[in-house]
User: What shape does this take?
Amino acid sequence: MKSLQKFIQIHRSINQHATRFSLLVVIMLFGLFMEAYMHDFNLVYITFFFVFSLAFSAGPIGVLNLGNIQAKFNIQGRIFAQKETNILFNINNTSSTSSWSITLHDNNDAKVTLTQIKGESSKNAVLPFLVYKRGTFTYDNCYLESKYPLSTARLTKPIDEVYEGIAYPEPKGRSLDTFLHEQETHYGEEKEFDGLREYDGSQKVSHIHWASVAKGEMSVKVFTKETKIHNLLFTYNTLPGDKESRLSQLCLWVLECEKRHLTFAIQMPHKQLTSKKESIDEILETLARY
Assistant: This one.
């Protein structure tokens, strides 16, 4: 009785959809029935009941194959606007038997197929995802699908969980090195010679390596700099471009400062953000919600 109640509960969580093989089975059964009725052939009767039993048993097998599968979000890392990321799912099989041919879908037509999920085990599945705008977003309407074992029905199981996240501005713009070169009188003193690089028009004329110019190559001397960390300030209102361009530029600099372990401050129109008091994620979230 408990097994029957469990099966009914699982069956209610599954949606069933017809496939072209469903129509094929119906046509075969109808044809075999008419053939058996008109000619009374034992072989036709046997074939009829054989096809009927296969089609009938495929339903419960498919329901149990999919019904014991659970999926949960396991999202890690930061998500940025206009940059494709991966949404990680943990797929868990609560049954003692293996499940086969389970496909994970999202509402953007992305999908991934898991050929086998062993009993009482779990697997990770990854779907590509792209957020077009910064700010909060929801990721939902995902579902599991299976046509196992005979493709006579397409079974789907919705994932009720909804992920609510935040997409940071797209990190793009001028590099932090370019910004420091433009402001080098404020952001450090030149220390040691650190090689040559191609001249791009933003460096000082005094840094041109004239020996390379004589060889037909326009290069400039590069020096390591002792950065005055407490003076590293980014001002929103002085940045070129529209609102989104400014936020993208600030996002890029925040990430580069984090990578280099530099402390910084961002002067927003009505608030100053500083890495000494706020975490990088808090600063990025402020930019995302601005």
User: Anything to note?
Assistant: The mean pLDDT is 83. The chain has three domains: 1-168, 169-188+229-290, 189-227. The chain is about 35% helix and 30% strand.
